[in-house]
Specification:
Elements lengths: L7 E5 L4 E6 L10 H14 L7 E6 L10 H6 L3 H20 L4 E5 L2 E3 L1 H8 L2 E5 L3 E3 L10 H8 L4 H10 L3 E2 H7 L4 E3 L4 H13 L3 H15 L3 H16 L2 H11 L9
Parallel strand pairs: 2-3, 3-4, 4-6, 5-7, 6-9
Antiparallel strand pairs: 1-2, 7-8
Helix pairs in contact: 1-3, 3-4, 4-5, 9-10
Length: 261
Amino acid sequence: MDDTSAPVTEHRDGRGVVTFTMNRPDSFNALGEEMLAALQDALDRLAGDGAVRVVVLAAAGKAFCPGHHLKEMVARPELAYYQQLFARCSRLMLAIQKLPVPVIARVHGVATAAGCQLVAQCDLAVASTSAKFAVSGVNLGLFCATPSVPLLRNMAPKQAMEMLLTGEFIDAAQARERGLVNRVAPPEQLDAEVESLVASILAKPRQAIAIGKDLFYRQREMGIEAAYQLASQTMAVNMMDACAQEGVSAFTEKRKPSWAA
C-alpha cells in the first residue's frame, strides 16, 4: 500500500522493513481521530505478519508530530469524548510495545506532547539535529499525563519531571543525552543513520529479537527477583530455539552462523 493521499502511507522493501509515514503535513501530523485510527490499523495489520522484521515510523512535512489535534479537542468539551480519545491513544502506544518487531522513530522535526510520547514509546529513535522535543501541554493548562508514562520509562525521573513541569524544548543532542533517542544525525544523513540501525537488527534472528523485546518490557515492571526468574526462563526457552542452537554452535566451531529469516 502506497496511497499518497492516505493519512498514513506504507512502504515495504524486500527485507521485511516496513516504513509507515504520517502523511498530514498541513496539521503537522497531529494525532487527530483520523491519524489515530490509521496508525492503529497499520500496526494491527502487522501484528501477525511473520515477514516483517523492522518497522520505521516517519512523518511527512516540516514536523514529526505536535501531539493531539487541539481543534478537534476543543470542539467537543465532553468528559466521555476525552476519556475515549486518550484511551485510543494509549491503545496505540501499547500496540507499538506489543508488536514483536522493533519500531524505530525517524524524527526530523518537532515532536511535542503526544508526539514526544510517540517517540518515547517506540523501541528505538533516530533524530535529525534539527529535531526538537517537548511535553508542552502544561503551557496550555493541561499536564501531559499520558506522555509522562513512556517519558519516565526513558529518562531519569528529575529530567522527565523538568520537561513535564516546564514544557520547555530540548534539542536532539539533549534528547540523546537524556535517553529519549538513540542516535542523532545531520538532516542529510538521517536516513543513512536509520538504515545503519535497521541493518544491524536485520542481521539477527527474528525470533531472538521478538523474545528479547517481550522480555525487556515485561521485566521492567517487575521486582528484581521476579525479573530474574522470568529472564532465566526466557533464556532457557530461547536456547531451545534452532537459531540459538545454530548461533552457539557456529561460535564454538569458529564459523559464521547460518540463520533462516
